[in-house]
UniProtKB/TrEMBL annotation:
Stated name of the protein: Transferrin receptor protein 1
UniProt GO cellular component terms: external side of plasma membrane; melanosome
Domain Transferrin receptor-like dimerisation: 614-699
Family, as annotated: Belongs to the peptidase M28 family. M28B subfamily.
Example of a GO biological process term: receptor internalization
Keyword Glycoprotein belongs to the record: yes
Membrane topology note: Single-pass type II membrane protein
Keywords (A to Z) from UniProt: Cell membrane, Endocytosis, Glycoprotein, Lipoprotein, Membrane, Palmitate, Receptor, Transmembrane, Transmembrane helix
InterPro entries: PA_dom_sf, PA_domain, Peptidase_M28, Peptidase_M28B, TFR-like_dimer_dom, TFR-like_dimer_dom_sf
Post-translational modifications reported in the UniProt record: Stearoylated.
Localization per Swiss-Prot or TrEMBL: Cell membrane; Melanosome
Function: Cellular uptake of iron occurs via receptor-mediated endocytosis of ligand-occupied transferrin receptor into specialized endosomes. Endosomal acidification leads to iron release. The apotransferrin-receptor complex is then recycled to the cell surface with a return to neutral pH and the concomitant loss of affinity of apotransferrin for its receptor. Transferrin receptor is necessary for development of erythrocytes and the nervous system. Acts as a lipid sensor that regulates mitochondrial fusion by regulating activation of the JNK pathway.
Length: 710
């Protein structure tokens, strides 16, 4: 029923060629006032404003390496594909309509030419083909190459002078383009490696080793235990070890980087009472040499974990709390050389069938000592913004954002994204100034800091205001999104005409926890999109290392990075819509079935309302879109605190309140597991049921349309 319901919602975006989307922007996490549309360009990796009106904006001051053989497959081309796709999203939102098969039709939700002229004095909206032609003229290889050169930096870690200098370069560019600018300042607590001393490991009676990489937010101290090789540290990997009756209590888990985030690996190990986790880049996944260090974080959340739910403003007093997503066990990255050296010496049982290699799992004699001495550091970070005011709906926004910081050079992680951000700002400003382009909604350009510590800058802003989020990243092209946006994405991509035949079929994928878009969906219930790129079958291998340089990116892409935007205009999507399983089939309780039925019925009613409504009426469009855009926010469980469970989304979040956890609880009851708790299960079932029912009620709209049969 949930699948059908979500499919019905998805049809809202493509059932009629005149439909478009508008998103709520609440005053607080669950308020309901103004509305927003947002695009995010980040990490290439990884939000803004109270109102789009300039007078109301608060401000302080003005993966496996793969050398492509043709342009369609190169990261250089894909980088420009990201720029063009993001640009297409932006223009679609700004002009008040999305991409349609009939290119001659503007969105019927947009006001008529006479209305626009009467209300704003603005020139009527441009034809979509004219907008695309302007894109091709403005966004070009030579300009992006200049931006890449000007914005490259060897050291711009969050809060550093290099980060601040780069932020100043971005805001200077925005001012040059005639944009109104401002900066938001935060004081956040992070964890850095010891300023004096070191972290260390000692395996058996071997020499003491001092890894230079680190994982921010690890517990500190010393742990001593027997090594247990646990593949990628995924829950399914640990389940296989449990099925082999292997005692994991107190063990030091040795796991490979990849597949899931560092934070998920550590959280899974903590659940089985491991004492520490060592993460290494296996050469099969990361051919980066024996001595390359990995950097990252292990906060099972986002933002400043020491002010969960609150923005980290200076001199502001908060309760002495910390995020429940902080681990209570040690976590440390080690190099490929260190990891393979330990693996070769392990004894014990053979690894389960299906695991790569011929490794042993380790036995009680394979003892290792792990010491982590990371220190807490307060950093002053700045988010930098520029805005182009809309000509009709100035209080509605498109926000384009990019992560600015990196562990090292961060050419792929931040330089490319920041360069695309600046080039989009230049292109759109020029279109407004010289070509008569009149954006209907305001456009805010955002440069985020502290993304490498877990989307800290973006989340701190999110804890003040909320928006729709789209995140881009590089290498082969992938899209992960809230199911509400799947049809929207496909329609946008299909508008790009091409002679290319090398776009991968499996375009859509589930949203990953380490994506910058994930907290927007799972923390604040904001429909989110993440554009991610990968090399062949794996991620770009230099993320999270100091080897993320222009030279290494060029070596993987045959020096084609700046060509992506130009080539992307001729790329076409060949993907099929992802249909995720949103409701575990094991949950067959009558309560849940009836709530799902309510959701399905009101979804069908809403689809009918759209088909039978006068979509020439702007207010009707606003009311319909308001109903649609409450869906994700109402899937946030109201029964848990964001401090205890930051990712409250019951379908796509994490924690005991989710449908996934409820399904696991049901399995425990069926197998008479000692961990089973029937009373707790009934309470969780009731809470999930009412969350779904509340979502259905909100989707119904008017109070007299609520389904009270339940």
């Amino acid at each position: 029923a949930m699948d059908q319901a979500r499919s019905a919602i998805s049809q809202i975006f493509n059932s009629e060629p005149h439909s478009y989307t508008r998103f709520n922007l609440p005053d607080n996490m669950e308020g309901d006032t103004s509305q927003v549309e947002m695009i995010q360009s980040s990490d290439m990796n990884e939000e803004v404003g109270e109102n789009g009106d300039e007078d109301h904006l608060s401000h302080k001051s003005n993966h496996k390496p793969h050398v492509a053989q043709n342009f369609e497959c190169t990261t250089k081309n894909l980088c420009f594909m990201a720029a063009t796709i993001v640009f297409t999203f932006v223009i679609g939102y700004l002009t008040g309509y999305l991409v349609h098969k009939n290119k001659d039709l503007n969105c019927s939700c947009a006001p008529s030419e006479d209305d626009v002229t009467h209300q704003t004095g603005a020139v009527p909206f441009m034809d979509w083909d004219d907008v695309k032609k302007l894109l091709g003229d403005k966004l070009n290889t030579s300009n992006l190459e200049i931006a890449l050169s000007q914005l490259s930096s060897s050291n711009h870690r969050a809060g550093s002078p290099g980060d601040e200098d780069l932020g100043n370069k971005v805001i200077t560019k925005f001012k040059e383009y005639g944009m109104k600018t401002w900066t938001d300042e935060y004081f956040v607590k992070v964890q850095d490696p010891p300023a004096s001393g070191y972290n260390r490991i000692v395996f058996k009676n071997g020499p003491e080793e001092h890894p230079t990489g680190f994982l921010s937010y690890s517990a500190s101290g010393t742990a001593r235990g027997a090594v247990l090789y646990a593949r990628y540290g995924q829950e399914e990997d640990l389940k296989q070890l449990k099925d082999m009756n292997i005692d994991m209590n107190g063990r030091v888990m040795l796991v490979r980087a990849g597949r899931i985030s560092f934070a998920e690996k550590v959280a899974s190990a903590a659940k089985v009472n491991a004492s520490a986790v060592l993460i290494y880049p296996d050469p099969i996944d990361y051919p980066i040499g024996n001595d390359t260090s990995l950097f990252g974080h292990v906060h099972m959340g986002s933002g400043d974990p020491y002010t969960p739910g609150f923005p980290s403003f200076n001199y502001t007093q908060f309760p002495p709390v910390q995020s429940s997503g902080l681990p209570n066990i040690l976590a440390q990255t080690i190099t490929t050389g260190m990891g393979t050296k330990i693996l070769r010496q392990l004894g014990g049982r053979a690894q389960p069938d299906g695991w790569e290699g011929i490794n042993r799992l380790g036995d009680e004699s394979d003892v290792i000592t792990v010491e982590v001495n990371n220190v807490h550091t307060e950093k002053r970070i700045n988010n930098v913004f520029g805005v182009i005011k809309g000509f009709v709906d100035a209080d509605r926004y498109v926000v384009i954002g990019a992560q600015r910081d990196a562990w090292g050079p961060g050419f792929a992680a931040s330089t490319v994204g920041t360069s695309v951000l600046v080039e989009l700002a230049r292109s759109i400003s020029d279109m407004v100034e010289n070509d008569g382009f009149k954006p209907r909604r305001s456009i805010v350009f955002a440069s985020w800091s502290a993304g490498e510590y877990g989307s800290v800058g973006a989340t701190e802003w999110l804890e003040v205001r909320s928006v729709v989020h789209v995140n881009t990243r590089q290498d082969g092209f992938k899209v992960a999104a809230s199911p509400l946006l799947h049809s929207l994405i496909q329609n946008t991509l299909k508008e790009l005409t091409t002679n290319s035949t090398n776009i991968p079929a499996a375009l859509l994928e589930p949203l990953r926890m380490d994506s910058a878009a994930y907290p927007f969906l799972a923390f604040s219930g904001i429909p989110s999109v993440a554009f991610r790129f990968n090399s062949g079958s794996s991620d770009y291998p230099y993320f999270g290392t100091t080897l993320d340089t222009q030279q290494n990116l060029n070596s993987i892409t045959a020096s084609q990075v700046p060509q992506l935007a130009v080539r992307a205009a001729s790329c076409r999507s060949h993907s099929a819509e992802l249909q995720p399983q949103l409701l575990p089939k094991t949950l067959t309780g009558q309560w849940l079935v009836m709530a799902s039925g309510s959701y399905n019925r009101v979804s069908s009613i809403l689809t009918a309302d759209i088909q039978n409504s006068d979509l020439e009426n702007m207010e009707t469009c606003r009311m319909i879109n308001d109903r649609v855009m409450t869906v994700e926010r109402n899937f946030l469980s109201p029964y848990v605190s964001p401090i205890d469970s930051p990712f409250r989304h019951i379908l796509l979040g994490s924690g005991p309140h989710t449908l996934k956890a409820l399904s696991s609880d049901l399995d425990a009851l069926k197998t008479a597991s000692p961990e089973a708790n029937a009373e707790l299960f009934r309470n969780k079932l009731a809470q999930v049921t009412w969350t779904i029912q509340a979502c259905a009620n909100s989707l119904a709209g008017d109070i007299w349309s609520l389904d009270n049969e339940f």
